[in-house]
UniProtKB/TrEMBL annotation:
Transmembrane segments: none
UniProt domain BTB: residue ranges: 1-98
GO biological process: protein homooligomerization
SMART domains: BTB
Metabolic or biological pathway: Protein modification; protein ubiquitination
Gene3D superfamilies named among the record's database cross-references: Potassium Channel Kv1.1, Chain A (3.30.710.10)
SUPFAM superfamilies named in the record: POZ domain
Protein name, UniProt field: BTB domain-containing protein
Length: 153
């Protein structure tokens, strides 16, 4: 019983993936836990909103795909339970998301024109195949096309 929500799992799930975590310590028998004598439920005084993500991570090691504010909430719970692998996974996911957002910016025609007109252009990892760039540079097309080809190579 966690924050008003009931979760059903095994001691093994709670202790195997992160044996040095506080969560594992709580259920290893080393600590006294608040257990209902009639039902066997254990009460943990934490917000249960993201505990399902913690359980799933303990089961399969996969960090869920969440919104940034949800990652912050899950990170707080992972830090409380000292789940170092989950903490690292969340931080890695946030860094990857930031890099993907920065790298995912698409080039516009204006960006291409500015690149072609500049001294040196390096378009590594940019796929220009299938694009007709001939209309981007009115005037001396041959000069710009040659310059663009030299700079791309």
């Amino acid at each position: 019983h966690l924050g008003g929500k009931k979760f059903c799992t095994t001691r093994g799930t709670l202790t195997q993936r992160e044996p040095d975590s506080m969560l594992a310590a709580m259920f290893s028998g080393r600590h006294t836990i608040c257990q209902d004598p009639n039902t066997g439920y254990v009460f943990v005084d934490r917000d249960g909103k993201h505990f399902r993500h913690i359980l799933n991570w303990l089961r399969d090691g996969e960090v869920p795909i969440l919104k940034d504010h949800e990652y912050s909430e899950l990170l707080r719970e992972a830090e409380y339970f000292q789940l170092l692998g989950l903490i690292d996974g969340i931080k890695t996911s946030l860094i990857k998301r930031k890099v993907d957002e920065e790298m995912g910016t698409e080039l516009t025609r204006i960006d291409i024109i500015k690149c072609i007109q500049s001294e040196k252009v390096r378009l590594r990892g940019v796929n220009l195949s299938g694009l007709d760039l001939s209309k981007l540079c009115p005037g001396d097309r041959e000069k710009h096309t040659t310059k663009a080809k030299e700079n791309i190579e």
